[in-house]
Design brief:
The protein is of the alpha+beta class and 162 residues long. The protein has 2 domains: 1-96, Arc Repressor Mutant, subunit A (Orthogonal Bundle); 98-162, Dna Ligase, domain 1 (2-Layer Sandwich), CATH 3.30.1490.190. The protein has 6 helices and 5 strands; from the N terminus they run H-H-H-H-E-E-E-E-H-E-H. The strands form 2 sheets. A 3-stranded mixed sheet has the order 4-3-5, with no helix packed on it. A two-stranded antiparallel ribbon has the order 1-2. Helix 2 packs across helix 4 (64-76). 13% of the residues are buried.
């Protein structure tokens, strides 16, 4: 029976991570492999606490130190990246097609978006400035509709920006 696309994709991530560990002279421990499986079984942004909770729920706990070190190795190897950074937390995501983020600074909700107009403008600015971009991240911090609605009700008026 052929592997599902997600299982085949995970096999690619696992092979790349194993090779990275070998190249660094590190062992591919069962705990590291379980962190990798947990991360790549998710299809959304995640924080370290999400991974801790999911691994506990599945009866496969690992120390926070192991999870932090594994995330660092995965980021260094280009398999995950910091997606959004809020006040006191960081969300990660699998490395895939380029997109940008809206971050609610109150509840932490993250919305991904793609704008060809923004990409075109960035390319044009770099071209005019004779600048070769290597990477970028675009994150807009604000309030989601639900948090803005709650804020507006608290201040007793329309959700006027400050």
């Amino acid at each position: 029976m052929p592997k599902s696309p997600s299982a085949a994709r995970f096999a690619v991530e696992e092979a790349a991570f194993s090779e990275q560990l070998r190249a660094k002279g590190l062992k591919n421990t069962p705990e590291r492999l379980e962190v990798l499986r947990t991360i790549f079984s998710r299809h959304a942004h995640f924080a370290i606490e999400d991974i801790v909770a999911e691994m506990r729920r599945r009866g496969r706990p690992a120390s926070r130190a192991t999870i932090y070190r594994t995330l660092s190795l995965l980021a260094e190897g280009g398999l995950i990246r910091e997606a959004v950074r809020g006040s006191g937390y960081t969300h990660y995501e699998h490395v895939r097609d380029h997109h940008d983020h809206l971050l609610c600074v109150h509840c932490g909700a993250v919305v991904e978006f793609v704008s060809q107009e923004i990409e075109r403008l960035q390319d044009e600015i770099c071209r005019r400035s004779a600048f070769t971009p290597l990477s970028h991240s675009h994150q807009i911090n604000g309030l989601c509709a639900a948090c803005e609605g709650r804020r507006a009700r608290r201040v007793g008026g329309a959700g006027a920006r400050t």
